Structures are given as C-alpha cells and as structure tokens.
C-alpha cells in the first residue's frame, strides 16, 4: 500500500469535522483535521442552542464547540491550521496543499460547511442578538414577537410560514413583486394572516441597544424608506457552500453542494463529504454529526478494503 502522512484528512473544523475527527481517531485512524481559522464553524456565531440532544437547558454555541473540540482531542486527533489551496483527490494517494505544506492521506472527508449569503447592511453586529439565518434553530425565541424576514425563495417562504407558529407577526421583505418560491409555498404564505408581504423592497440596516429593535426598509421602486419595529430579522437570501477550493473536482448539485450516497461517499473513491457542504434536505448540528459518524466509519471501511 502507498505511504501517506495520514490515513484520513478532514477539511473543516465545525461540528461535522470535529465529529468525524473524534470517530476516526477513536477508531485509531491516523487523522489530521485541517481548519482555516478556528474550530467551531457556524455554531461559534450561534448564541443559544436548544435543539441539540443532551443539553435540556440549552447550551451556547461557543460552549458546545469547546466541548466538541475537547472530546475530539481525547483520541489523539491532530490539527493543522491554514487554508486549503489545492487538492489532488484522484488515485490511492490524496494530496492537499495547505500553505507551503503538501499533506497526503488515503482518505479525505470534506466538511467545509456553508455560509448564509449576507445582506451587507451591518447585520453582523446583531448575530445572536436578533439576526438569525435559521428558523428551526431560533424561531421559538420569538414567541408572540414581531420579526422581519428577508428573501423570496423556498427557504424564506417556507421558514416564514414556520415562524408564524411562534411570532405574532412576520413582515416578509422581498426585492421584487413576485416570489421565487414554489407556487404551493407562495399560496400558503399569502393566505397566512400573520405574514405581511413588503414587495419591491430591501433591508437597509437595523438598530437597537442590546439587540434588534428596528429594521430599515427601502422600496426600490418608489425610493420610500420606512422603519419596522421588530424583535428579530431572519435573513434567507441564499446559502453558499464552501466548495470553491475544490475547483470542480467532485460531483455537485445545481447549487454547488457536494453529492454523496447514503455512505457519504462522493464520486471519487476514498473521498467523503459530511455536514452543511453536502447536498442534503436539512442543515443542522444534529444532521452534521450524523453525517460525520457515517463518513468516518465509511472511511474506515474503505481503508480496510485497500
Ligand atoms: P434561492 O432560491 O437562491 O433564493 C434566494 C432569494 O433571496 C431569492 O428570492 C432572491 O431574490 C433573494 N436574494 C438574493 N440575494 C439577495 C439580496 N442581496 N438581497 C435581497 N434578496 C436577495 O435560495 P433558497 O431559498 O435558500 O433556496 C436554495 C435552494 O434550496 C433552492 O433550490 C430551493 O428550491 C431549495 N429549497 C427547497 C425547499 C423545499 O423544497 N421545500 C426548501 C428550502 C430550500 P430574487 O428572487 O429576486 O433573485
């Protein structure tokens, strides 16, 4: 068998990467996790998590991230910090260039995640303080409150409908006068008494002392600017997979998320994907860790077969 630095290299240190690292190193695979900046991924900007099993009182994103890192480290997982610049994934030896290092392994798990597209109107100041990208995660915090939602695609419309189970009022701001979402979702949203459509409009900013209190909205046809008093702002203007560094090496869906089978295997033997970067119907911490347990076990089986 060809010599490599590692049995497995994992790209990405969010919940998916850390879980894959924990499973693989516990299974005694010589495993390296490559992380661009800091481990934790999107949960680092998640204020409070109430839907991850095992924490009935809830847990902050940074605390959960610390615990995942601590658990992964118990089994001798190795870490390399730096940006992946290129990779050669075909063949038995996979090589990954990080800065001036070329690292090799027999298997690779891509767990590089995805990022919600931002509005670039200063919303990052309110991350975890009223700005959210996930109704499944945060809608229950808005019981009987007023929220603004942004976007016109399936996500914005479906999630706005979900928000109405909690919020007393949802203003859905969309930049055009018709929705992109599927007709059935449109019909449901337009018939929902708690949803008020704000057509032809964009969010221009938000303010508040400790969290979101006001959301600025501008009608792009008339130029009229208004302020909506709201407790939160949910932004659903698309989600971007962190797959640019792959340079088209793997098979992707129409939105550039990596296609896998039920074993998390990609189209290249020995290369697996897990978590938000994968083409999947739900992107949650619970689904990311589930994917990763499967991916790490699949990598182990693949190595046994070499
Ligand atoms: P999407 O379909 O790309 O829609 C993004 C929406 O955000 C569009 O309405 C777009 O407006 C708007 N937008 C984009 N940039 C904006 C900006 N800078 N400012 C304001 N608005 C902006 O994204 P998605 O809704 O997240 O859906 C992604 C994929 O997942 C889609 O294929 C969708 O069908 C699928 N999905 C399916 C379901 C389901 O089947 N139930 C649920 C969720 C998602 P324009 O329309 O003007 O371009």
Explain this structure.
The chain is α/β, with parallel strands linked by helices. It has two domains: 6-115 and 239-304, FAD/NAD(P)-binding domain, CATH 3.50.50; 118-235, FAD/NAD(P)-binding domain. It has helices at 15-26, 61-73, 135-138, 154-163, 183-191, 285-305, and strands spanning 6-11, 31-35, 48-49, 59-60, 78-81, 84-88, 94-98, 101-110, 114-116, 131-132, 146-150, 169-173, 195-198, 201-207, 214-219, 225-229, 232-235, 239-241, 271-273. Strands 1, 2, 5, 6, 7, 8 and 19 form a seven-stranded mixed sheet that branches. Helix 4 runs parallel beside helix 5. The longest helix has 21 residues, at 285-305. It binds NADP nicotinamide-adenine-dinucleotide phosphate. Residues 117, 119, 150-156, 158, 175-176, 180, 202, 236-239, 255 line the site of NADP nicotinamide-adenine-dinucleotide phosphate.
């Amino acid at each position: 068998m060809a010599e490599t630095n590692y049995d497995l290299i994992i790209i990405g240190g969010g919940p998916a990467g850390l879980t894959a690292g924990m499973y693989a190193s516990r299974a005694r695979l010589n495993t390296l996790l490559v992380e661009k900046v800091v481990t934790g991924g999107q949960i680092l900007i998640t204020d409070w998590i109430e839907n991850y099993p095992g924490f009935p009182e809830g847990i902050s994103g940074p605390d959960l991230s610390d615990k995942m890192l601590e658990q992964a480290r118990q089994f001798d997982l190795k870490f390399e910090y730096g940006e992946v610049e290129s990779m050669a994934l075909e063949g038995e030896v996979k090589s990954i260039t990080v800065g001036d290092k070329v690292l090799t392994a027999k298997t690779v798990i891509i767990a590089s995640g995805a990022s919600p597209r931002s509005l670039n109107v200063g919303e990052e100041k309110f991350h975890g303080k009223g700005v959210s990208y996930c109704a499944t995660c945060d809608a229950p915090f808005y019981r009987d409150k007023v929220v603004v939602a942004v976007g016109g695609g399936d996500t914005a419309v479906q999630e706005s409908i979900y928000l109405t189970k909690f919020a007393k009022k949802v203003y859905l701001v969309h930049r055009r006068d018709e929705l992109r979402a599927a007709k059935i979702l449109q019909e449901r949203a337009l018939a929902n008494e708690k949803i008020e459509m704000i057509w032809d409009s964009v969010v221009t900013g938000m303010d508040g002392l400790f969290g979101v209190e006001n959301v600025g909205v501008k009608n792009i046809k008339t130029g009229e600017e208004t302020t909506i008093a709201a407790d939160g702002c949910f932004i659903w203007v698309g989600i971007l997979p962190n797959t640019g560094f792959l340079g088209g090496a793997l098979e992707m869906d129409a939105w550039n998320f990596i296609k896998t089978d039920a074993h998390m295997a990609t189209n290249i033997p020995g290369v697996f994907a897990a978590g938000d970067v994968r083409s999947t119907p739900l992107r949650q911490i619970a689904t990311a860790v589930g994917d990763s347990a499967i991916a790490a076990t699949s990598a182990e089986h693949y190595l046994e077969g070499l």
